[in-house]
From TrEMBL:
The entry's keywords: Transferase
GO molecular function, one term: fatty acid synthase activity
Alphabetized InterPro entries for the sequence: Ac_transferase_dom_sf, Acyl_transferase_dom, Acyl_Trfase/lysoPLipase, Ketoacyl_synth_C, Ketoacyl_synth_N, Malonyl_transacylase_ACP-bd, PKS_assoc, PKS_Beta-ketoAc_synthase_dom
Protein name: Ketosynthase family 3 (KS3) domain-containing protein
Pfam families for this protein: Acyl_transf_1, KAsynt_C_assoc, ketoacyl-synt, Ketoacyl-synt_C
């Protein structure tokens, strides 16, 4: 790669200090790179970690002489104070001399610490300037001589400060080379290749600005580096002879451990000209990616990064992303002194009483997202501005033929060719590497959840003795591709096979169709949400595990996080796993297209030219503990959950039309229900889907933060969906992961793919600012920790606002812990019970006696509730049942004066509705027909099967409406509760508890938590059953479960007495264990 992209620019003429051409071949005394397994990586520019160095100095007396030497050199050679540079504020730039010597010192300390722990390097690899630390750790120079060598390099560079700068570009070297040719008349040079999709250019500020402008027009990301000089660039030629002469005075020795010089294509050996190599490297390009690939080819699989952060590990991972057999480690994370630093906070002074409300610690996290099989890779994509949305036909070759129509709106088709996919081949490799003992063959979404959760547990660092555990996960039956596909196949095949005169040949062809159709070709029940999620969590914990599935549409992962927090605060759990996952079929995109909500070229969140969103695969897992438990156990705390606010939109023009009032209420509840001062918020990760909802969200934020003090910095606003698309039920969790990295690295991420801020925002007069470049995250006001907030707003009007902050022990210790309703164990009472089941004339007569079902005419919208006829005719039976079942309780509550703003709706719902199954059949009709044609092409025509297929779809179309703008709201499970909230103007949280073994018990348990914690005065809760799929087609079932609904109204006894509500029975206790679940309703 170096020869291809770099040699053409190295001919410098006879006046070049090193001759007419800078030679990049091997030295006369080279030694080939040996085979081995273990690599030590040393950081270059950007590898200065003052906080970690300061911690080493304070906790490890044995290394203080090295610090004293560096302090002496800084003072005598440059007049700077190294110790003072370790305590500078975030926005204060350290002197260049302190920074360079600090990088060298850190690399040496953490490299030697690995060796002292018994880890033997088979080769050393420095990233650019990291070569200096590799020389010292490898034994080619003493620490003192290496430090002096760094000083000579700094002095040789003096006077070249205006030579230029460096910038990282998110593209490969070949592609960047084409851009540089198009730019013309420039002095830019490709300096570094970090990985196959990122190169670094060096050159003048003026030409870097020209390149940046060109790339922005093409929606390409370029990130300016903090480097003071244009390294690996001919602009530094004047420094080469000066540094070479001074470097020649240093004493060198044969290295104890092999030191790899990629630019020289060899390792150091006796007689090797180290001074010449180091001086040439100022102007020689550096190909880190090729170096890593070469080492992998020689058997190297284990990489240790000798420094803070994960920069080099991420580069290795990106370079070797197709290989699942590599192992990546961080020396700083393994240092006994850095561990002592975190454990030190568990002294008695830092202990927190657990009997009162307290912040919640995030002790583990992991994710699988488009273009990222772990959170490190996701953060790297954010820094590089790398969009991981792709064309559907690149993954599914028949997508355009089967599922797409370029017209803006076409029945049962999507007009967007885009989606965010998790690469299944890479996912399979990663899944195979985690070693989970799966109890059965996993689907794609199960593998995503398992990989994300395994990463979270690796960060947590505890493999057993979890205490009381529960899982709360955002999930929907509509978010499992294999489930949709298996149901389509099942119903198509059953519908065809029950037609008369089906031949054995036709049945054989249906068997072939079963095998060819897609990933979901098995029994649909094995792909149902209950099976999909619970199986993974049971396998992870190696035991039956309490699992609650939460469906509030796109806010689900944050609603699940809220339940996890409540479970911890009441002592029901000691470790709470939460998050969400989504891997929908093409049907989701086809239905969203019906109201023009999709993007055709890019997701431009917050942009004036936003045209819509794109749906993506995603899974995110967080591990939470009570802060006191996490601190006392010495766990690493990655972030702190300080506040959560939830709400519903209530009345709106439609369940898919967001409201400022509802969103604003969620934000207000987050701050009014906590001790967090909204003036301390510095960054907000917006929900921003690049739809019309962006403007609604901005208005709600502006209203909530309208009192921001003018002397404070404007709040930075960002939205990650421009990079990864909309991960649906995992989107709030992915935003949390993004913010955890931003807080850790003290970087405010810039907004990608932003050409012009949405003009309807009127952002200049708002308290917000959107930038396109990454910024340093400054310290917060009044000594408070860095703090951010996350919005997640679900389709159907379910809103969540969460506040996250960095972990600062002193700040946590000062948090007021007001006694909360949740800690009082208030009595919870049942104030109303309502059941609706088919009986008499309401029972349909086309099913057998084992399955009682309502006639369609018996399902009605309650009197006084108005809906457009087009909306009503697209509503599922479950939405009708929920409105009917909740009506009596809500009428009673309103008659007693209970504020609708303080009423919540939580219902258990058992699955996809019939209408959703029929709609997916229409969407996949062309795919089914194409596959049958392909089978006929090889097996011969089958006239009966062709005719049967025509009859099947003709019959369906006579009895079912085509998809339209009201279809998706009419069939989404989350709208079962959302429709109740909308038509009754309820603004308490509303959501669906997914399928489980004790549906009403789940909703009752959660309702008890919500009224005890004050999220609502009254919760209308319960469960419904709709039997098996597709009863509308007249199938007969053996199930004895009737169609029906049971509804309760739940409140604390105090609230019931306040509003004079009837107390039917106390809800004394709800046991929700892994194997036992019961309710005690005492009369």
């Amino acid at each position: 790669m170096i020869g291809r992209f770099f040699l053409h620019r190295r001919r410098a003429g006879p006046n070049h200090p090193l001759g007419s051409e800078v030679k990049m071949g091997k030295a006369a005394t080279d030694r080939p790179v040996p085979r081995g397994t273990t690599v030590f990586l040393f950081q270059g520019q950007g590898g200065f970690h003052p906080a970690a160095l300061k911690s080493e100095f304070e906790t490890n007396a044995g290394v203080r002489p090295l610090f004293q030497l560096v302090q002496h050199l800084c003072g005598t050679e440059f007049g700077t104070d190294f110790h003072a540079s370790l305590s500078l504020g975030d926005r204060e730039k350290p002197p260049f001399s302190c920074e360079q010597l600090g990088i060298y010192l850190g690399g040496f300390l953490w490299g030697r610490s690995l060796i002292e722990r018994g880890i033997t390097p088979h080769i050393m690899l420095g990233h650019s300037f990291g070569e200096f630390a590799s020389l010292a750790v490898g034994g080619a120079v003493s620490f003192a001589d290496g430090a002096q060598l760094v000083c000579e390099r700094i002095k040789a560079l003096q006077g070249l400060e205006q030579a230029g700068r460096m910038a990282a570009v998110s593209m490969g070297a070949e592609q960047l080379e084409h851009h540089l040719r198009d730019l013309q008349d420039h002095d830019l040079e490709i300096a570094v290749i970090n990985h196959p999709e990122q190169a670094v250019v060096s050159g003048s500020e003026q030409d870097l600005a020209r390149l940046d402008e060109k790339l922005r027009l093409e929606q390409r990301a370029m990130h300016r580096l903090k480097s003071q000089y244009p390294f690996h660039c001919t602009k530094l030629l004047p420094a080469v002879p000066i540094f070479r002469e001074r470097a020649s005075r240093i004493r060198y020795a044969d290295a104890t451990y092999p030191i790899y010089f990629p630019s020289e294509s060899c390792v150091q050996s006796p007689g090797f000209d180290i001074a010449g190599a180091l001086s040439r490297h100022l102007t020689t390009p550096f190909d880190f990616a090729s170096a890593v690939q070469n080492l992998y080819a020689l058997g190297y699989r284990t990489f240790y990064e000798c420094g803070g952060g994960t920069l080099l590990r991420n580069l290795v991972r990106r370079t070797l992303r197709e290989h699942s057999d590599i192992s990546l480690h961080g020396a700083l994370e393994m240092s006994p002194f850095s561990q002592a630093t975190s454990i030190r906070t568990s002294t008695p002074d830092a202990q927190i009483p657990a009997d009162k409300m307290e912040p919640v610690a995030i002790v583990g996290y992991g994710c699988v997202l488009p273009g990222a099989l772990d959170s490190d890779e996701y953060w790297m994509n954010i820094l590089e501005g790398r969009c991981t949305i792709s064309r559907c036909d690149a993954v599914d070759p028949f997508f355009l033929e089967d599922l797409y129509n370029e017209e803006a709106v076409t029945v049962d088709k999507t007009y967007s060719p885009l989606a965010g996919y998790v690469d299944e081949t890479l996912l399979d490799q990663r899944f195979a590497s985690i070693g989970i003992k799966a109890s059965r063959q996993y689907s794609k979404i199960q593998k995503m959840i398992a990989v994300a959760s395994t990463e979270a547990f690796e960060r947590y660092g505890v493999s057993d003795n979890f205490g009381k555990v529960a899982c709360f996960y955002g999930a929907t039956p509509d978010g499992i591709r294999e489930y949709d596909e298996s149901l389509v196949l099942k119903h198509f095949r059953e519908g065809i096979e029950k037609l008369p005169e089906a031949s054995s040949s036709s049945k054989e062809r249906l068997e072939l169709l079963q095998r060819r159709f897609g990933g979901g070709t098995g029994n649909p029940e094995s792909f149902s949400p209950a099976q999909t999620y619970k199986v993974v969590f049971n396998d992870l914990f190696r035991a039956e595990t309490k699992t609650i599935l939460v469906d509030s549409a796109c806010s689900s992962s944050l609603y699940a996080t809220d339940l996890a927090v409540k479970s911890l605060m009441t002592g029901q759990t000691d470790l709470a796993l939460c998050g969400g996952a989504f891997a929908a079929s093409a049907g989701n995109s086809a239905l969203f297209a019906q109201f023009r909500g999709l993007a055709t070229s890019a997701v431009r969140a917050l942009d004036d030219n936003a045209e819509g969103t794109v749906f993506s695969d995603g899974a995110v897992t967080l591990l939470l503990r009570r802060m006191s438990d996490a601190v006392n156990a010495g766990h690493h705390i990655y972030g702190v959950i300080r506040a959560i606010g939830l709400s519903s939109d209530g009345k709106s023009p439609g369940v898919n039309v967001p409201t400022v009032t509802g969103q604003h209420l969620a934000i207000e509840r987050a701050y009014s229900g906590s001790s967090v001062d909204r003036q301390s918020i510095q960054y907000i990760e917006a929900h921003a889907t690049a739809t019309a909802g962006d403007v609604v969200e901005f208005k709600s934020l502006t209203r909530a933060f309208s009192t921001r003090k003018p002397d404070l910095e404007k709040i930075r606003l960002g939205a990650g969906k421009s990079l990864i698309g909309h991960t649906g039920w995992a989107s709030g969790g992915s935003a949390i992961v993004k913010m955890l990295y931003a807080l850790k690295n003290q970087i405010m991420p810039g907004q990608t793919a932003l050409h012009r801020i949405n003009s309807r925002f009127q952002i200049e007069s708002s308290p917000f600012q959107v930038t396109t470049t990454h910024e340093s995250w400054p310290a917060n006001t009044a000594g408070q920790p860095r703090r951010c907030a996350i919005n997640s707003f679900g389709f159907g009007g379910t809103n969540a606002h969460v506040v996250i902050e960095e972990y600062c022990p002193a700040s946590i210790a000062s948090v007021p812990r007001d006694q909360h309703a949740g800690a009082d164990h208030q009595d919870v009472v049942i104030c109303a019970i309502r059941t609706i089941f088919p009986f008499g004339d309401s029972i349909t007569d086309n099913l057998d006696s084992h399955f009682l079902r309502f006639k369609a005419q018996a399902l009605k919208i309650p009197a006084g509730k108005l809906l457009l006829p087009d909306v009503a005719e697209q509503m599922s039976r479950s939405q009708y049942l929920s409105l009917m079942g909740c009506e009596d309780a809500l009428s009673m509550l309103k008659g007693k004066g209970v504020d609708p703003e303080r009423i919540s709706v939580i219902l258990s719902h058992n699955d996809k509705c019939d209408r959703a199954c029929v709609t997916n059949l229409f969407i996949y009709e062309d795919r089914l027909r194409r596959l049958l044609r392909e089978i006929s092409a090889t097996a011969g025509p089958d006239a009966w099967l062709e005719s049967a297929t025509d009859r099947f779809f003709t019959t369906l179309r006579k009895t079912h409406l085509p998809s339209g703008p009201y279809t998706l709201p009419g069939i989404m499970p989350s709208i079962v509760s959302g429709r109740v909230a909308q038509l009754n103007d309820l603004k308490g949280p509303n959501f669906i508890v997914g399928e489980s073994s004790a549906r009403s018990a789940d909703s009752l348990e959660i309702a008890g938590l919500y009224v005890r914690f004050g999220n609502a005065d009254v919760v209308v809760c319960g469960g419904m059953s709709l039997g098996k799929h597709f009863a509308e087609l007249g199938e007969h079932h053996d199930s004895e479960v009737a169609e029906g609904i049971v509804v309760f109204a739940v409140a604390t006894k105090k609230i019931a007495e306040k509003y004079d509500l009837p107390i039917i029975a106390p809800l004394r206790q709800i046991h929700s264990g892994s194997a036992h679940r019961s309710m005690d309703l005492a009369a």
